[in-house]
Amino acid sequence: MRTLRFAAPHRFTGRMWLAAGMLSALALFAAALIAERATQSKPRYEAGIRRTSHGIPHLTARDWGGLGFGEGYATEQSQFVSRTAAS
Amino acid sequence: MLLSNRSLSAELLRPELVKRCQATSSVTLDGQSVDLRKACQVLSARDGRYEVDIVGPVLWREFITRYEPAELQRSGALFAQGFNPADPVNTPNTLAADQDGSRQSLTTLEPHKIPERVKGSRFLGKDGYLINRGSSFVMALEYTAQGPRAQAFLTCSQLGDPTSPLFYDQTQLFSAKKWRRILFTEAEIKADPNLQTIRVTSGK
User: Fold this and answer.
1) Given A61, A72, B61, B156, which residue has the most CB atoms within 10 angstroms?
2) What is the 3-state secondary structure (H, E, C) of B112-172?
3) Strand pairing partners for B95?
4) pLDDT per position as a tens digit, A10-62
5) Distance from B145 to chain A by nearest Cα, in Å?
6) Which of B22, B136, B7 is closest to B72 using CA atoms?
């Protein structure tokens, strides 16, 4: 029975369960906050634009949002002058 | 086929037009005699295709654009037999009998003004013909065991900035019938001699 006591030194009362639950909830909340901070410190969209011969753009991005951002950016790089000249 | 520069109107009408101008060495227009012989020779050379290294296509284009677009289908000033929905493959056909209109058009074949601006031209300006229609993006692609292999023409070129060489470089490739490769793989992109890389980001 000693072994069993060693494995579980305390009997968890209802109040202790509650405290443990609150602690872990707090930890989760803190972790979420930190993750949010980390996200916010980065740009929302990010992309790489590589231009090869004849100005052809090749896009790289980590996600679809970045890819869309890069696509729009590259298009405006290519066509901004003609678009503004036309209007 | 894609780059053959064939002209339907030239294929339908040029042989007969050449025959007629060979039979008529000169015509009178506005009281002036116009010699047609040299133009006739230009027009009869080669096969009537719109190739860039010969004068004939300019001459042909100037001849055919003297007619209203509707004349390219109906019987009248240009065609003896107009377009017939019951026989779409073989109509229109046959150069119309020589009328005042087509005789006037023949005088555009007088070659001294070519390749300078042609009097009365609808489309030929001092800088040549304005490119405002035709093929835009043309791609030929093959699926291979190593992935896609493709080449293309972007006839309007990549950039919209008229001060950049990239405004017209691919247009020139199209004119010269020179395909450019489409790059798919990292290795192909990294091996490109003109590779430029930038990183772009949005706000937070």
Assistant:
1) B61
2) HHCCCCCCCCCCEECCEECCCCCCCEEEEEEEECCEEEEEEEECCCCCCCCCCHHHCHHHH
3) B79
4) 455 666 666 767 767 777 667 666 666 555 678 999 999 999 999 999 999 99
5) 23
6) B7
The answer to whether the Cβ–Cβ distance between B200 and A73 falls below 8 Å is yes
Interface test with B, best of A50, A60, A80 (most B CBs within 10 A): A50
pLDDT digits (tens, 9 = 90+) for B46-101: 888 989 888 888 888 888 888 889 999 999 889 999 999 999 999 999 999 876 66
Whole-model pTM?
Answer: 0.72
The token pair at B163 is 């001060």
DSSP B58-70: HHHHHHHTTS-GG
Q: Give the three-class secondary structure for B195.
A: coil
Tokens (6 digits) for A6: 């060693």
Q: A76 contacts in B (CB within 8 Å)?
A: none
Stated as kind and residue range, the H or E segment containing A40 is: helix A14-40
Interatomic CA distance for residues B42 and B28, integer angstroms: 20
Contact B54, B46 (CB under 8 A): yes
